[in-house]
Amino acid sequence: MDAFALADDLATDGAICVGEALERVHADWERQVAAGGIAPQTIATHMRCLRTFVKYASKRGVSTLARVSSELVWAWVGSVNSRTGEAATANMCGLRRAAIRGFYSTAFILGLTEANQAASLPNIASPQRVVSALSDEQIQQVKAVATWQVPITDGRQRRYETGSLPGPVALALTLIGAQPGEVGAIRGKDLHLLDGVVFAHGGGRFDDRWLPVDDAWAFETLLARQAWLETNRPKSWLGAPIAYDRREGTPETHAGRSAATSMTLDKLLAKAGLKQPGRIRAASINEWVAARVFANPGRVEAVAARLGMRSLDAAAHLVGYDWRPDFTTPAPEGSQ
């Protein structure tokens, strides 16, 4: 690590309000976002988390960075939710740990403090993802809801023009293996329906890959969307997201598209009467894809490749497959 150089406007190490230190760190993170070094959604999540740390420290009479102790940081990482009073989940503790470590790393670089009160925090094991894959019958229910999106206007029912809505397209892309966070990044030029494939942008979290359009309903839905876009948006559709329509006045960001498309999928599940918070959610569609892919050819590697996952263990967890027994050396007979 480089030698510590105290910021010019600080008299001593840590002589800065915790909140002001966070704003300086935030400004540096935004600079890194602009340079393409950090994903903006990561910064947004960390900032929401760290602002609770500033409040936590203030309530305990800790105003400056110099007065923050490792004990305070430890206590905050495991503290209850201040709004609900519920105990912090393992996921939340892991997020807090990552955020405060990033904060101290940047504070050192900015010359705010040489001390790293987050250095002694232990690793926090993340709980395994809850798998609630939809059944084939449930997938048919969601398809039916997406196919016939019938709003009620002035007591009358009307159907939208085929291909005009992004919702069915979001479902179609998820059904062939796009992750909910990737769906909003897929543009017209990524459709290669004559070749039966769609290009998915991993966005750093997942691998970029070509997805086979191996679901008949998804193929028909994507074909209808392409035809509608070619007719109604002939000059812009190739470079625009096909499963996301930006509202006027709303800036287009990856985080915004991801949130919107995930919400669209959640609404379809809710309309189909399937959504269960914490269990049946947009990821349950991907889990159905995982089960379908694993069934043929029966390889967990195929699941990881389809979903863009870099961890074979994570892919195996989705399909309930334990690969270790096939490669574990058996104990000698009679051994304990």
Task: Explain what you see.
With 336 residues, this protein is mostly helical. Helix content is 46%, strand content 4%. The protein is built from twelve helices and five strands. It has helices spanning 18-34, 40-59, 70-77, 90-109, 136-147, 166-175, 180-183, 216-232, 254-271, 283-295, 300-307, 312-318, and strands spanning 152-153, 156-157, 191-192, 197-200, 209-212. The strands form two sheets. It has a three-stranded antiparallel sheet, with no helix packed on it. The two termini are 47 Å apart. The mean pLDDT is 88.
List the helices and strands and how they pair.
Elements: H1 18-34, H2 40-59, H3 70-77, H4 90-109, H5 136-147, E1 152-153, E2 156-157, H6 166-175, H7 180-183, E3 191-192, E4 197-200, E5 209-212, H8 216-232, H9 254-271, H10 283-295, H11 300-307, H12 312-318
Antiparallel strand pairs: 1-2, 3-4, 4-5
The class by helix and strand makeup works out as mainly alpha
User: Biggest sheet, in brief?
Assistant: 3 strands, antiparallel
Beta-strand percentage? Answer: under 5%
| Oligomer status | single chain
Gross geometry: globular
Number of DSSP-assigned strands: 5
The residue fraction in helices comes out at 40-55%
Query: What are the segments in which pLDDT stays under 50 over at least 5 consecutive residues?
Result: none
What strand line-up does the widest sheet have?
3-4-5
What is the count of DSSP helices, taking H or I runs of 4+ residues?
Answer: 12
Estimate the mean pLDDT confidence.
88
The radius of gyration computed from the alpha-carbon positions, rounded to a whole number of angstroms, is 24 Å
Order of helices and strands: HHHHHEEHHEEEHHHHH
Determine the N-to-C terminus distance.
47 Å
